[in-house]
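New to this. Help decode the following:
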Amino acid sequence: QVQLVESGGGLVQPGGSLRLSCAASALAFSRYVMRWYRQTPGKERELVAQINSVGGNIYYADSVKGRFTVSRDNAKSTLTLQMNSLKPEDTAVYYCNAAFTNYWGQGTQVTVSS
């Protein structure tokens, strides 16, 4: 059974950094485009970043460009999101997703607050 497990969320002050990880199991990870989404209550899930199967063709939402970096390690079946210069508006539950599938993690909460 495919599992995507996010970790690394938490409470951080504005301007701080967090590193999110998504560990995949029972998935041919290296074959998939992978995505990070985020969601806040009452809003639709927002695509934050995307990376193709070999680590290229990277997309970022305008709201995170220059602050977030997505990467992957296919040998370890791991997707990472490095988040720097965090802002209160980055507060959300962050999810990883294997693109074009219903494979989602359970989410990890990121709260940016002083």
In short: The radius of gyration is 13 Å. The chain has a mean pLDDT of 97.
